[in-house]
Every structure is written in structure tokens, then in C-alpha cells.
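User: C-alpha cells for this one?
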Amino acid sequence: MKKTYVLHFDQSNYDKPIVYRLIKEYDLVFNILRAVILPKKESYLAMEISGEPSLMEQGLDYLVKQGVKVESINKSVKRNEQVCIHCGACTAICPTGALSIERPSMLVSFHPEECTACGLCVKACPPRAMEVSF
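Assistant:
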């Protein structure tokens, strides 16, 4: 299971090794997408978390008990088939392999289940066929 979350920290917990315990105790893997950490102010951490569903639930419960506000971000990337010209520009930038060129047809195929909605393909697509939706 893989989901994207924004973790909101406050003045009492921004400087504690809370996220570290997600790895150590709950065997979760995370990818930090964006972070704003300000001393003694509200801070946030946007991250993609993956792991076993039951362990992920336990890890998220742990965060809440530590005073972290957990916000689920539901976003996905969609391809507009009428706009796509199958140029392949998106395949070169896709970090997960969700976009690939099929041989010998040279058509671009999109596998949404492998997509992490990072949005890199949106910027790379000349005809703007790729879109991020929340």
C-alpha cells in the first residue's frame, strides 16, 4: 500500500525524531516530497508512505498520538488520450516507469497503478496531455 500524506507539526513536536520511528518500529518506507521546518513554529512534511496496510495504520495512529496532524492527499495523474501525441517525452522523466514506450508500435503506455503522482510528466509533456488531479 502506498499513499501520500502531509504531516503537520506544532511547536511541541517539530524537533523530535517522530518520523524515524515509522521506519524502525512499523517497517514503513517513505519518500519526502516537500518539507518546511521552522523552529518553534508550525511545520509540515509532505511524504509518500508505503508498507503493509496494518503497519501503516499503526504508524499513522502513532503519529496522531504524538500530536502530529495527518492529512491524506489523494491525487492522481491522468492522461488525456485525445491530446497525447505519443512523443515519449514523459517516459524519459518518469521515475517509477509508469510511462513507457511500447515496441514496436512506439506508442506511450500509461500504468496508473505504478504512478506516484509526482507530476514530473506534466511539466515534460509538450502537448500537455498529462494532468494532476486532486
